[in-house]
Amino acid sequence: MDKTGNTERQILEKVDSLSGKLSDLKTGIGEFIFGQDQVVELTLITLLAKGHALLIGVPGLAKTRLVETLGGVLGLDDKRVQFTPDLMPADILGSEILETAEDGSRHFKFLKGPIFGQILMADEINRASPRTQSALLQAMQEEMVTVAGQTYPLPTPFHVLATQNPIEQEGTYPLPEAQLDRFLMQINVGYPDRETERRILLETTVNEEARPTQVLSPAELIEAQHLVREMPVSDAVIDAILKLVREGRPGDSGNDLVNKYVSWGPGPRASQALILAVRARALLEKRLSPSIDDVVYLAKPVLRHRMALSYAARAENITMEDIIDSLTVPLE
């Protein structure tokens, strides 16, 4: 029995009742996002784990389309903000205006910004100034914003899916480590293969495109997020997560590559992100509890933005993927 009083049988029944809809959810998204099965899977895991995702990829790889599709299939209110150097915090959070009533009295009225959607796409987030980025930080962590001393709760559920262009870095402000750590995963979006690109050409250049059909309601998504936190995790999986994260910290690690090529490693929030992510993947695959294979599979998207390479690593062409591979091999 878990801390909420549910037995494993009750949790399994909940998993069974949701599994069909989650399968339909993946299918529904796949009808609009072609050839990005892993990206879709990792994004769904992020949402089920009640997290935020950083999508890294060049323009034109359907990142915006993914957010719009998620809004449709989940029945969520989706918003999009194009981040630019002149974007101000009020452009995202909202602002107060002085309003005059019919009787001549005046009062301040708060006009909500786009952050009050349920899915916010922060497009090219690293193009905004640090001041604007920090305004997003409180919302991501606390699910509320403060304007003129007044606190406003954000809608539930609330998720940020931010994008970055990995090529053009002129005029950008790198995200601070504290904000990077707020993203449950960094999801790399690659180019489609030839057959997928052919399908894109044929199905996205017609006069009328189909619209996503809602598969899951916001209430059902919240129920699934609660279920993720109820799922049991074996001691073996917990030990694997702790070993993976702690071995990624230079100085305390027994891994020579980490000690030589890593400037700083993942903190405790990485362990929290991993345990939620592996549970969410188990739920998505209709399993009662996660396995060590889930830990290995999710190590890169969870850890790659929570570690930094040293100058020596860059000089010797050592990548973050090389480092994480050296950490996961002992777990397999």
Automatic annotation (TrEMBL):
InterPro entries from the UniProt entry: ATPase_AAA-3 (IPR011703), CbbQ/NirQ/NorQ/GpvN (IPR050764), ChlI/MoxR_AAA_lid (IPR041628), P-loop_NTPase (IPR027417)
Domain ChlI/MoxR AAA lid: 258-325
Gene3D superfamilies: Magnesium chelatase subunit I, C-Terminal domain, P-loop containing nucleotide triphosphate hydrolases
Any one GO molecular function term: ATP hydrolysis activity
SUPFAM superfamilies named among the record's database cross-references: P-loop containing nucleoside triphosphate hydrolases
Residues annotated as domain ATPase AAA-3: 52-185
Top-level division of the source organism's lineage: Bacteria
Family in the record: Belongs to the MoxR family.
The protein's name in its UniProt record: AAA domain-containing protein
Top-level taxonomy: Bacteria, Pseudomonadati, Pseudomonadota, Alphaproteobacteria, Sneathiellales
